[in-house]
Here is the input.
Amino acid sequence: MSKYEPLFQPLMIGRMEIKNRIIFSPMTTFLTDVDDTLSQASIAYFEARAKGGAGMLITEACFIDPNENANSMGLNFQSKRGTVQFARLADVAHRYGAKLCIQVSAGSGRTASPEQGQIPYSASAVPALSSPKIICRELTKEEIGQIIQKITESAMKAVIAGADAIEIHAHNGYLLDQFISPQWNIRTDEYGGELENRMRMPKELISSIRATVGPSIPIIFRISVDHKYPGGRTLEDTEEILKALEPVVDAFDVDFGAYESIDYMFPSYYMGSACSVDLAKAVRKMGIQKPIMNAGNHTPDSALEFVRNGTLDAVMFGRSMLADPDLPNKLREDRDKEVKPCIRCNEFCLKGVLTRTGIRCAVNAEAGEEIYQKLEPATNKKKVLVIGGGPGGCEAAITAAMRGHEVVLCEANEALGGMLQVAATPDFKMQLKNLITWDEVMLKKYGVDVRLGERVDENSEILSKVDEIIVATGAKELVPPIPGIDSPGVIRIADAHRNQDKLKGENIVIAGGGLSGCDFAIELVDKGKKVTIIEMREKVAADVFPINAITLFRTLGQKQVTMMTGAKITSMESGKVIVQTTEGEKCVEADTIVLALGMRADKDLAEKLRIKFGTRVRKIGDCEKPGKVGNAVREGYYAGATV
Here is the structure.
């Protein structure tokens, strides 16, 4: 019996039974067709997660306003094709025993994007999120009724097409949230003021849907129980709301955040695992008896813990099932070591949505591309050499071996992981450590000949014995010619990570305020050091994904990391750093100086091999151009998939 057996007990939500406690979270994808209907790519995306064993799939929000569709998924039930495509999705989900839940939304309200070109409407005349000088138009009672009617029609059409459940989106500060929250609802009629009035619209919506779809279709309510910003709704405020709703809904999907605290909506690795589960615990302590669902950086083990102890009735995996659609089946079959970890980077999933290019995943090149990226068995099996055991090299080796090629991976160091071994030292980057472990497990499973401590050069004998060569030698640290850079007490960041006993004294100066320098600063403060970051640009973390940067800067502030920006290091010596600033020259005391000044591609071997072996050589990852972990993994997949 699998240790994860508690996750595979059936769960009743209202009158509906789902086969297990694992739910695929609703996430905007931008995989729809131009007419706002589900595309073949959308259906294939959901099919991969249904086939992977999820108990229920929840779609992204179905909006009722065409202007909203331009900025989100836009499940269009106004056209015949929209309904037909949804029916196909329902058939796909049911084929694998999964339930399909449609998420319906009243719309964005005051959070609407300015590109829509209209003054946003809201529960009341409050400032628009994007431009506080713009005052939203207060919805009339007639308009409220029309919104309720349109949502009900969409819900009914979805049920007719095969939906098993309905989730009402009242999260993130969207329109329904604006009605139930006192900071946004300042109406003076029966839809505003006291809690009973603020709850009128969502209750009327629930009543309308229930009267239309009947008693057997469960209604789930998705709500932010803590907005996580000053002036927002708190957990204590939400308790009355939940208790008012419990008699009329079948389950709660509880989360945190709003657009004013947007990084809570998309928690990065700084927030750790199961980052919103404390709120679910609090909801349970309120005496809520209806099933509670929760997302937020869950791991298989956190899911097991909180289902087993009764905190949660079901766990929602979103980005984790982008990374590995087969997560449920692997847990059920005791193959948890084969679950590919989400690294919580937001670099491909969220960025793909914000840029309207479609959802993707840093560690799973097939995510969002299921109908285009399919591994086919190799018809001409080859001997493949992969040089470099970082994330790109490992991915290339695994992918090529999965297709049936004979693969040798040579890594000059005594361990796999490359720069991940460096980056993964802090606890908040545990998922990077897990990715290294996953690589080790899968390399072994697919029979890759891994040779650690074996350095390859242009004259190595093995080169003449293989058909294809994939070079993944990574990047080297930049060490500019700053006077004193070789002084005692000055160490490079990779060495500092690997050998932290070299970090002498209490005062640490990090030269370079990129992501690696900032993350290392947090790690060092947690170990009792006082840290100063010196950055030549006007701000640290200038290249960090903006939503992640919100959490990063908050964390740096909480850890009391000193940041000197617009500061150029002119010299270093044991015990101090000399810096040129707009206010003149300054001397910063330092017991140890850590160099985090960036990376450059390590192209030397690749270029030599290209000269000697021509088109048999392919460069991937940082040895081509330094980038994110996801870039290296995806290039590795592409190389292994096409060799």
In short: The chain has a mean pLDDT of 94. The CA atoms of residues 223 and 254 lie 5 Å apart.
